[in-house]
Protein backbone atom coordinates (compact mmCIF):
# COMPACT_ATOMS: atom_id res chain seq x y z
CA UNK A 1 0.00 0.00 0.00
CA UNK A 2 1.31 3.45 -0.93
CA UNK A 3 2.33 5.66 1.96
CA UNK A 4 -0.25 8.35 2.81
CA UNK A 5 1.42 11.70 1.98
CA UNK A 6 -1.20 13.88 3.70
CA UNK A 7 -3.24 14.18 6.92
CA UNK A 8 -0.09 14.34 9.06
CA UNK A 9 -1.42 17.08 11.33
CA UNK A 10 -1.66 14.61 14.21
CA UNK A 11 2.01 13.58 14.01
CA UNK A 12 3.51 16.90 12.87
CA UNK A 13 2.98 20.21 14.68
CA UNK A 14 2.42 23.52 12.95
CA UNK A 15 5.71 25.27 12.27
CA UNK A 16 6.29 28.70 10.74
CA UNK A 17 9.50 29.73 8.99
CA UNK A 18 11.98 31.03 11.53
CA UNK A 19 11.58 34.68 12.48
CA UNK A 20 14.59 36.94 12.83
CA UNK A 21 15.33 38.19 16.34
CA UNK A 22 13.57 41.45 17.16
CA UNK A 23 16.82 43.26 17.97
CA UNK A 24 18.17 42.34 14.52
CA UNK A 25 15.12 43.21 12.47
CA UNK A 26 14.80 46.61 14.18
CA UNK A 27 17.96 47.61 12.34
CA UNK A 28 16.82 47.15 8.72
CA UNK A 29 13.84 46.90 6.37
CA UNK A 30 14.43 43.30 5.30
CA UNK A 31 11.61 40.77 5.57
CA UNK A 32 11.44 39.26 9.04
CA UNK A 33 10.64 35.64 8.09
CA UNK A 34 13.14 33.21 6.60
CA UNK A 35 12.25 31.00 3.63
CA UNK A 36 11.03 27.44 4.08
CA UNK A 37 13.51 24.79 2.96
CA UNK A 38 12.10 22.18 0.55
CA UNK A 39 11.82 19.47 3.20
CA UNK A 40 10.10 21.81 5.66
CA UNK A 41 7.63 23.05 3.02
CA UNK A 42 6.74 19.48 2.09
CA UNK A 43 6.39 18.57 5.78
CA UNK A 44 4.07 21.48 6.59
CA UNK A 45 2.02 21.01 3.42
CA UNK A 46 1.53 17.35 4.37
CA UNK A 47 -0.39 18.45 7.48
CA UNK A 48 -3.38 19.37 5.26
CA UNK A 49 -6.38 17.15 5.98
CA UNK A 50 -7.63 17.36 2.35
CA UNK A 51 -11.10 17.89 3.80
CA UNK A 52 -14.19 17.44 1.66
CA UNK A 53 -15.31 21.05 2.15
CA UNK A 54 -12.14 23.19 2.07
CA UNK A 55 -13.02 26.23 4.15
CA UNK A 56 -9.55 27.66 3.45
CA UNK A 57 -10.50 27.85 -0.22
CA UNK A 58 -14.01 29.19 0.31
CA UNK A 59 -12.72 31.93 2.65
CA UNK A 60 -10.05 33.04 0.16
CA UNK A 61 -11.41 35.89 -1.99
CA UNK A 62 -9.68 34.32 -5.02
CA UNK A 63 -10.90 30.82 -4.11
CA UNK A 64 -7.38 29.53 -4.58
CA UNK A 65 -7.08 25.76 -4.99
CA UNK A 66 -5.23 25.53 -1.70
CA UNK A 67 -5.71 21.79 -0.94
CA UNK A 68 -4.50 20.91 -4.44
CA UNK A 69 -1.27 22.88 -4.32
CA UNK A 70 -0.59 21.74 -0.75
CA UNK A 71 -0.89 18.12 -1.94
CA UNK A 72 1.38 18.80 -4.91
CA UNK A 73 3.94 20.45 -2.62
CA UNK A 74 3.83 17.58 -0.13
CA UNK A 75 4.49 15.07 -2.93
CA UNK A 76 7.37 17.04 -4.46
CA UNK A 77 5.51 18.18 -7.58
CA UNK A 78 6.46 21.80 -7.08
CA UNK A 79 6.17 23.10 -10.64
CA UNK A 80 2.62 21.75 -10.81
CA UNK A 81 1.94 23.36 -7.44
CA UNK A 82 3.10 26.71 -8.85
CA UNK A 83 0.97 26.32 -11.98
CA UNK A 84 -2.08 25.48 -9.85
CA UNK A 85 -1.46 28.46 -7.59
CA UNK A 86 -0.86 30.83 -10.52
CA UNK A 87 -4.07 29.68 -12.23
CA UNK A 88 -6.24 31.59 -9.76
CA UNK A 89 -3.85 34.19 -8.31
CA UNK A 90 -1.88 36.72 -10.33
CA UNK A 91 0.58 37.44 -7.50
CA UNK A 92 0.78 34.42 -5.16
CA UNK A 93 4.20 35.32 -3.75
CA UNK A 94 2.81 38.74 -2.75
CA UNK A 95 -0.36 37.33 -1.17
CA UNK A 96 1.75 34.74 0.67
CA UNK A 97 3.62 37.62 2.28
CA UNK A 98 0.95 40.20 3.06
CA UNK A 99 -2.48 38.55 3.16
CA UNK A 100 -3.98 38.39 6.66
CA UNK A 101 -4.08 34.59 6.58
CA UNK A 102 -5.12 34.53 10.22
CA UNK A 103 -8.42 36.14 9.15
CA UNK A 104 -8.86 34.31 5.83
CA UNK A 105 -7.55 30.88 4.78
CA UNK A 106 -5.59 29.84 7.88
CA UNK A 107 -8.17 31.25 10.25
CA UNK A 108 -10.77 28.92 8.73
CA UNK A 109 -8.61 25.80 8.40
CA UNK A 110 -10.49 22.70 9.60
CA UNK A 111 -7.57 21.35 11.62
CA UNK A 112 -7.21 24.75 13.31
CA UNK A 113 -10.81 24.38 14.50
CA UNK A 114 -9.98 20.91 15.84
CA UNK A 115 -7.12 22.26 17.94
CA UNK A 116 -4.15 20.96 15.94
CA UNK A 117 -2.94 24.30 14.59
CA UNK A 118 -3.62 25.53 11.10
CA UNK A 119 -1.59 24.61 8.05
CA UNK A 120 0.96 27.36 7.32
CA UNK A 121 -0.74 28.18 4.02
CA UNK A 122 0.79 31.62 3.47
CA UNK A 123 4.37 30.48 4.05
CA UNK A 124 3.96 27.53 1.67
CA UNK A 125 2.35 29.78 -0.96
CA UNK A 126 5.31 32.17 -0.72
CA UNK A 127 7.78 29.26 -0.95
CA UNK A 128 6.13 27.78 -4.05
CA UNK A 129 6.33 30.96 -6.12
CA UNK A 130 9.73 32.12 -4.86
CA UNK A 131 11.03 28.71 -5.94
CA UNK A 132 9.29 29.12 -9.30
CA UNK A 133 11.16 32.39 -9.85
CA UNK A 134 14.46 30.78 -8.83
CA UNK A 135 13.90 27.82 -11.18
CA UNK A 136 12.91 30.00 -14.13
CA UNK A 137 9.34 28.68 -14.31
CA UNK A 138 7.91 32.22 -14.27
CA UNK A 139 8.08 33.53 -17.82
CA UNK A 140 6.86 36.72 -19.54
CA UNK A 141 3.44 36.65 -21.15
CA UNK A 142 3.39 35.30 -24.72
CA UNK A 143 -0.14 35.52 -26.11
CA UNK A 144 -1.12 32.81 -28.58
CA UNK A 145 -2.26 35.60 -30.91
CA UNK A 146 -2.52 39.38 -30.78
CA UNK A 147 -5.92 41.06 -30.77
CA UNK A 148 -6.88 44.42 -32.18
CA UNK A 149 -8.50 45.83 -29.02
CA UNK A 150 -6.73 47.94 -26.44
CA UNK A 151 -7.49 48.73 -22.80
CA UNK A 152 -6.30 51.71 -20.77
CA UNK A 153 -5.89 51.16 -17.04
CA UNK A 154 -5.66 54.11 -14.65
CA UNK A 155 -3.67 53.00 -11.62
CA UNK A 156 -0.76 50.55 -11.35
CA UNK A 157 -1.80 49.00 -8.05
CA UNK A 158 -2.72 45.33 -7.54
CA UNK A 159 -6.16 45.64 -9.15
CA UNK A 160 -4.85 47.34 -12.26
CA UNK A 161 -1.85 45.02 -12.57
CA UNK A 162 -4.01 41.91 -12.18
CA UNK A 163 -6.36 43.09 -14.92
CA UNK A 164 -3.40 43.94 -17.16
CA UNK A 165 -1.95 40.46 -16.72
CA UNK A 166 -5.22 38.72 -17.66
CA UNK A 167 -5.90 40.98 -20.64
CA UNK A 168 -2.38 40.75 -22.00
CA UNK A 169 -2.45 36.94 -21.82
CA UNK A 170 -5.46 37.10 -24.13
CA UNK A 171 -3.53 39.26 -26.60
CA UNK A 172 -5.18 42.60 -25.76
CA UNK A 173 -2.99 45.71 -25.96
CA UNK A 174 -2.71 47.22 -22.46
CA UNK A 175 -1.49 50.64 -21.35
CA UNK A 176 -1.27 51.53 -17.64
CA UNK A 177 -1.27 55.17 -16.51
CA UNK A 178 -0.03 55.97 -13.01
CA UNK A 179 0.86 59.09 -11.03
CA UNK A 180 3.97 57.60 -9.40
CA UNK A 181 7.43 56.97 -10.84
CA UNK A 182 7.25 53.23 -10.12
CA UNK A 183 4.38 50.81 -10.65
CA UNK A 184 2.82 48.82 -7.83
CA UNK A 185 0.72 51.37 -5.98
CA UNK A 186 0.58 50.59 -2.26
CA UNK A 187 2.59 47.41 -2.91
CA UNK A 188 5.51 49.67 -3.79
CA UNK A 189 5.07 52.78 -1.67
CA UNK A 190 2.53 51.91 1.03
CA UNK A 191 3.67 48.56 2.43
CA UNK A 192 7.09 48.58 4.13
CA UNK A 193 9.91 46.37 2.94
CA UNK A 194 9.94 44.26 6.10
CA UNK A 195 6.55 42.89 4.99
CA UNK A 196 7.12 42.98 1.24
CA UNK A 197 10.62 43.50 -0.13
CA UNK A 198 10.47 45.75 -3.14
CA UNK A 199 12.39 43.53 -5.55
CA UNK A 200 9.43 41.13 -5.29
CA UNK A 201 7.13 43.84 -6.68
CA UNK A 202 9.63 45.21 -9.20
CA UNK A 203 10.21 41.82 -10.82
CA UNK A 204 6.44 41.45 -11.36
CA UNK A 205 6.32 44.91 -12.93
CA UNK A 206 9.21 43.99 -15.19
CA UNK A 207 7.55 40.71 -16.12
CA UNK A 208 4.45 42.59 -17.28
CA UNK A 209 6.57 45.06 -19.25
CA UNK A 210 8.49 42.18 -20.86
CA UNK A 211 5.12 40.66 -21.79
CA UNK A 212 4.06 43.78 -23.68
CA UNK A 213 2.23 45.90 -21.10
CA UNK A 214 3.00 49.59 -21.64
CA UNK A 215 3.54 51.74 -18.54
CA UNK A 216 3.04 55.51 -18.63
CA UNK A 217 4.45 56.70 -15.31
CA UNK A 218 4.47 60.14 -13.62
CA UNK A 219 1.13 60.69 -15.32
CA UNK A 220 -1.62 62.52 -13.46
CA UNK A 221 -4.97 61.98 -15.14
CA UNK A 222 -6.77 65.31 -15.33
CA UNK A 223 -3.46 67.19 -15.57
CA UNK A 224 -1.02 65.42 -17.89
CA UNK A 225 -3.73 63.65 -19.87
CA UNK A 226 -7.50 63.97 -19.76
CA UNK A 227 -9.87 61.12 -18.99
CA UNK A 228 -11.61 61.80 -22.29
CA UNK A 229 -8.32 61.38 -24.16
CA UNK A 230 -7.73 58.01 -22.49
CA UNK A 231 -11.24 56.88 -23.42
CA UNK A 232 -10.67 57.97 -27.02
CA UNK A 233 -7.43 55.99 -27.26
CA UNK A 234 -8.80 52.69 -25.97
CA UNK A 235 -11.70 50.31 -26.50
CA UNK A 236 -12.22 50.06 -22.73
CA UNK A 237 -10.91 51.86 -19.64
CA UNK A 238 -10.44 50.47 -16.13
CA UNK A 239 -10.32 52.84 -13.16
CA UNK A 240 -8.03 51.25 -10.56
CA UNK A 241 -6.78 54.30 -8.67
CA UNK A 242 -7.25 52.99 -5.14
CA UNK A 243 -8.11 55.38 -2.31
CA UNK A 244 -5.40 57.80 -1.26
CA UNK A 245 -7.22 60.62 0.53
CA UNK A 246 -6.36 60.33 4.23
CA UNK A 247 -9.05 60.70 6.86
CA UNK A 248 -8.19 63.64 9.06
CA UNK A 249 -8.58 64.84 12.64
CA UNK A 250 -10.16 68.22 13.24
CA UNK A 251 -9.43 69.03 16.87
CA UNK A 252 -7.54 71.61 18.91
CA UNK A 253 -3.89 71.93 17.89
CA UNK A 254 -4.19 69.78 14.76
CA UNK A 255 -2.44 72.45 12.69
CA UNK A 256 0.87 72.07 14.52
CA UNK A 257 3.88 70.96 12.50
CA UNK A 258 5.01 67.40 13.18
CA UNK A 259 1.50 65.98 12.74
CA UNK A 260 1.64 64.01 9.49
CA UNK A 261 -0.39 61.59 7.37
CA UNK A 262 0.46 57.90 7.33
CA UNK A 263 0.57 57.67 3.53
CA UNK A 264 3.08 60.53 3.31
CA UNK A 265 5.26 59.00 6.03
CA UNK A 266 5.24 55.50 4.48
CA UNK A 267 5.76 56.69 0.91
CA UNK A 268 8.80 58.75 1.83
CA UNK A 269 10.20 55.94 3.98
CA UNK A 270 9.84 53.40 1.17
CA UNK A 271 11.50 55.72 -1.33
CA UNK A 272 14.41 56.51 0.96
CA UNK A 273 14.92 53.19 2.75
CA UNK A 274 14.05 50.67 0.04
CA UNK A 275 14.99 52.48 -3.17
CA UNK A 276 17.71 54.83 -1.94
CA UNK A 277 15.96 57.91 -3.34
CA UNK A 278 17.00 61.30 -2.00
CA UNK A 279 13.86 62.81 -0.45
CA UNK A 280 14.02 66.28 1.12
CA UNK A 281 11.26 65.59 3.68
CA UNK A 282 13.18 62.55 4.89
CA UNK A 283 16.60 64.18 4.93
CA UNK A 284 15.39 67.29 6.81
CA UNK A 285 13.50 65.19 9.39
CA UNK A 286 9.95 66.24 8.51
CA UNK A 287 8.95 62.66 7.64
CA UNK A 288 11.65 60.83 9.58
CA UNK A 289 11.22 59.33 13.05
CA UNK A 290 14.92 59.25 13.90
CA UNK A 291 15.52 60.43 17.47
CA UNK A 292 11.86 61.29 18.07
CA UNK A 293 9.09 60.29 20.41
CA UNK A 294 6.49 58.97 18.00
CA UNK A 295 2.77 58.56 18.56
CA UNK A 296 0.70 56.76 15.93
CA UNK A 297 -3.08 57.15 16.01
CA UNK A 298 -5.07 54.20 14.68
CA UNK A 299 -5.40 50.43 15.00
CA UNK A 300 -5.38 49.09 11.44
CA UNK A 301 -2.66 47.52 9.32
CA UNK A 302 -1.47 50.97 8.18
CA UNK A 303 -0.91 51.95 11.82
CA UNK A 304 1.11 48.75 12.31
CA UNK A 305 3.23 49.66 9.29
CA UNK A 306 3.85 53.12 10.73
CA UNK A 307 4.87 52.01 14.22
CA UNK A 308 7.23 49.34 12.90
CA UNK A 309 8.73 51.72 10.36
CA UNK A 310 9.31 54.31 13.13
CA UNK A 311 11.21 51.74 15.18
CA UNK A 312 13.50 51.01 12.22
CA UNK A 313 14.11 54.69 11.59
CA UNK A 314 15.52 55.08 15.09
CA UNK A 315 12.68 56.58 17.12
CA UNK A 316 13.45 56.94 20.82
CA UNK A 317 9.96 55.66 21.67
CA UNK A 318 6.91 54.54 19.69
CA UNK A 319 3.38 54.41 21.08
CA UNK A 320 0.17 53.47 19.33
CA UNK A 321 -3.15 54.94 20.48
CA UNK A 322 -6.28 52.94 19.71
CA UNK A 323 -9.73 53.73 21.07
CA UNK A 324 -10.80 50.08 21.48
CA UNK A 325 -9.04 47.11 23.06
CA UNK A 326 -6.76 44.52 21.47
CA UNK A 327 -9.60 42.10 20.73
CA UNK A 328 -11.49 44.75 18.74
CA UNK A 329 -8.67 46.26 16.70
CA UNK A 330 -9.00 45.90 12.90
CA UNK A 331 -5.31 45.22 12.27
CA UNK A 332 -3.68 41.80 12.13
CA UNK A 333 -2.96 40.24 15.51
CA UNK A 334 0.22 38.77 14.00
CA UNK A 335 1.41 42.26 13.09
CA UNK A 336 0.56 43.57 16.55
CA UNK A 337 2.67 40.82 18.12
CA UNK A 338 5.57 41.59 15.78
CA UNK A 339 5.34 45.28 16.70
CA UNK A 340 5.36 44.55 20.43
CA UNK A 341 8.40 42.31 20.04
CA UNK A 342 10.18 45.19 18.31
CA UNK A 343 9.47 47.63 21.14
CA UNK A 344 6.18 49.33 20.26
CA UNK A 345 3.92 50.19 23.22
CA UNK A 346 0.16 49.97 22.63
CA UNK A 347 -2.10 52.25 24.60
CA UNK A 348 -5.45 50.49 24.31
CA UNK A 349 -8.73 52.28 24.98
CA UNK A 350 -7.08 55.62 24.30
CA UNK A 351 -8.16 58.33 21.88
CA UNK A 352 -6.81 61.80 21.05
CA UNK A 353 -8.85 64.89 21.82
CA UNK A 354 -6.28 67.49 20.80
CA UNK A 355 -2.60 68.36 20.60
CA UNK A 356 -0.22 70.57 22.53
CA UNK A 357 2.54 72.49 20.83
CA UNK A 358 5.75 74.34 21.55
CA UNK A 359 6.10 77.34 19.27
CA UNK A 360 3.88 75.76 16.64
CA UNK A 361 5.67 72.37 16.78
CA UNK A 362 3.73 69.45 18.21
CA UNK A 363 4.77 68.62 21.77
CA UNK A 364 2.13 66.15 22.91
CA UNK A 365 -1.18 64.42 22.33
CA UNK A 366 -4.06 65.14 24.68
CA UNK A 367 -5.39 61.64 25.36
CA UNK A 368 -8.75 60.66 26.79
CA UNK A 369 -9.18 57.17 28.22
CA UNK A 370 -12.08 55.09 26.98
CA UNK A 371 -14.18 52.10 27.98
CA UNK A 372 -16.30 49.86 25.77
CA UNK A 373 -20.03 50.37 26.09
CA UNK A 374 -23.01 48.99 24.21
CA UNK A 375 -22.60 47.73 20.63
CA UNK A 376 -22.96 50.35 17.89
CA UNK A 377 -24.73 49.94 14.52
CA UNK A 378 -21.92 47.68 13.26
CA UNK A 379 -22.29 45.35 16.25
CA UNK A 380 -18.98 46.38 17.83
CA UNK A 381 -18.91 47.81 21.32
CA UNK A 382 -18.84 51.58 21.10
CA UNK A 383 -16.03 53.37 22.96
CA UNK A 384 -17.13 55.79 25.67
CA UNK A 385 -15.05 58.50 27.34
CA UNK A 386 -14.01 57.99 30.96
CA UNK A 387 -14.40 61.43 32.50
CA UNK A 388 -11.43 62.79 34.43
CA UNK A 389 -8.91 60.28 33.06
CA UNK A 390 -7.26 62.56 30.48
CA UNK A 391 -3.50 62.88 30.21
CA UNK A 392 -0.88 64.26 27.82
CA UNK A 393 1.37 61.87 25.89
CA UNK A 394 4.63 63.62 24.90
CA UNK A 395 5.35 63.49 21.18
CA UNK A 396 7.75 64.95 18.63
CA UNK A 397 6.06 63.25 15.67
CA UNK A 398 2.40 62.27 15.42
CA UNK A 399 1.30 60.01 12.57
CA UNK A 400 -2.39 59.84 11.68
CA UNK A 401 -3.29 56.35 10.44
CA UNK A 402 -7.05 56.69 10.38
CA UNK A 403 -7.82 55.06 7.05
CA UNK A 404 -8.38 56.31 3.53
CA UNK A 405 -11.19 57.76 1.46
CA UNK A 406 -11.60 58.14 -2.31
CA UNK A 407 -10.53 61.31 -4.06
CA UNK A 408 -13.23 63.30 -5.86
CA UNK A 409 -12.65 61.78 -9.30
CA UNK A 410 -15.60 63.49 -11.06
CA UNK A 411 -14.08 66.86 -10.16
CA UNK A 412 -10.39 65.93 -10.58
CA UNK A 413 -11.04 64.42 -14.01
CA UNK A 414 -13.77 66.85 -15.09
CA UNK A 415 -16.18 63.95 -15.41
CA UNK A 416 -19.41 65.00 -13.66
CA UNK A 417 -21.23 62.06 -15.26
CA UNK A 418 -18.93 59.49 -13.62
CA UNK A 419 -21.28 57.71 -11.19
CA UNK A 420 -20.16 57.68 -7.56
CA UNK A 421 -21.74 56.61 -4.28
CA UNK A 422 -22.42 58.90 -1.34
CA UNK A 423 -19.04 57.78 0.02
CA UNK A 424 -17.28 58.92 -3.15
CA UNK A 425 -16.47 55.43 -4.42
CA UNK A 426 -17.18 54.67 -8.07
CA UNK A 427 -20.46 52.86 -8.71
CA UNK A 428 -19.71 49.62 -10.54
CA UNK A 429 -21.52 46.36 -11.21
CA UNK A 430 -20.63 43.48 -8.93
CA UNK A 431 -18.19 40.96 -10.51
CA UNK A 432 -17.78 42.78 -13.85
CA UNK A 433 -16.76 46.23 -12.61
CA UNK A 434 -18.83 47.88 -15.34
CA UNK A 435 -19.98 51.45 -14.67
CA UNK A 436 -22.85 53.33 -16.27
CA UNK A 437 -20.37 54.92 -18.71
CA UNK A 438 -20.02 52.79 -21.82
CA UNK A 439 -16.71 50.93 -21.87
CA UNK A 440 -15.62 52.27 -18.45
CA UNK A 441 -14.96 49.86 -15.59
CA UNK A 442 -13.71 50.23 -12.03
CA UNK A 443 -12.00 47.78 -9.66
CA UNK A 444 -10.43 47.53 -6.22
CA UNK A 445 -10.53 50.08 -3.44
CA UNK A 446 -12.00 52.83 -5.61
CA UNK A 447 -15.13 50.65 -5.69
CA UNK A 448 -14.94 48.82 -2.34
CA UNK A 449 -13.34 51.49 -0.19
CA UNK A 450 -10.06 50.69 1.58
CA UNK A 451 -9.76 46.91 1.53
CA UNK A 452 -7.28 44.04 1.08
CA UNK A 453 -4.84 43.52 -1.78
CA UNK A 454 -6.34 40.10 -2.46
CA UNK A 455 -9.77 41.64 -3.09
CA UNK A 456 -8.26 44.11 -5.57
CA UNK A 457 -6.59 41.21 -7.40
CA UNK A 458 -9.93 39.39 -7.59
CA UNK A 459 -11.69 42.50 -8.91
CA UNK A 460 -9.01 43.03 -11.54
CA UNK A 461 -9.22 39.45 -12.77
CA UNK A 462 -13.04 39.44 -12.82
CA UNK A 463 -13.12 42.74 -14.70
CA UNK A 464 -10.64 41.47 -17.29
CA UNK A 465 -12.85 38.45 -17.92
CA UNK A 466 -15.89 40.71 -18.37
CA UNK A 467 -14.03 42.93 -20.84
CA UNK A 468 -12.82 39.92 -22.82
CA UNK A 469 -16.39 38.60 -22.94
CA UNK A 470 -17.54 41.99 -24.26
CA UNK A 471 -14.82 42.01 -26.92
CA UNK A 472 -15.62 38.44 -27.97
CA UNK A 473 -19.34 39.21 -28.25
CA UNK A 474 -18.61 42.28 -30.37
CA UNK A 475 -16.27 40.28 -32.61
CA UNK A 476 -18.87 37.55 -33.06
CA UNK A 477 -21.50 40.11 -34.00
CA UNK A 478 -19.20 41.67 -36.60
CA UNK A 479 -18.37 38.26 -38.05
CA UNK A 480 -22.06 37.40 -38.32
CA UNK A 481 -22.70 40.59 -40.28
Give an account of the 3D structure.
The chain is α/β, with parallel strands linked by helices. The chain has three domains: 114 residues, Alpha-helical ferredoxin (Fumarate Reductase Iron-sulfur Protein, Chain B, domain 2, Orthogonal Bundle); 169 residues, FAD/NAD(P)-binding domain (3-Layer(bba) Sandwich); 157 residues, FAD/NAD(P)-binding domain, CATH 3.50.50. It has 19 helices and 16 strands. A five-stranded parallel beta sheet has the order 3-2-1-4-16, sandwiched between helices. The chain has a five-stranded parallel beta sheet with strand order 6-14-7-8-9. α2 packs across α4. The longest helix has 28 residues. The N and C termini lie far apart (62 Å). The mean pLDDT is 94.
Q: SS-based structural class?
A: alpha/beta
The description of the largest β-sheet is: 5 strands, parallel
As a percent range, the share of helical residues equals 25-40%
Number of strands: 16
CATH class of the largest domain: Alpha Beta
- Spans of 5+ residues with little confidence (pLDDT < 50)? none
Number of helices: 19
Q: What is the H level of CATH, i.e. the homologous superfamily of the largest domain?
A: FAD/NAD(P)-binding domain
Mean pLDDT: 94
The largest sheet has its strands arranged as 3-2-1-4-16
Specify the overall morphology. globular
How many angstroms separate the termini?
62 Å
Return the CATH architecture of the largest domain: 3-Layer(bba) Sandwich
User: How many structural domains are formed by the residues?
Assistant: 3
Rg estimate, integer Å: 23 Å
What's the CATH topology label of the largest domain? Answer: FAD/NAD(P)-binding domain
Proportion of β residues? 15-25%
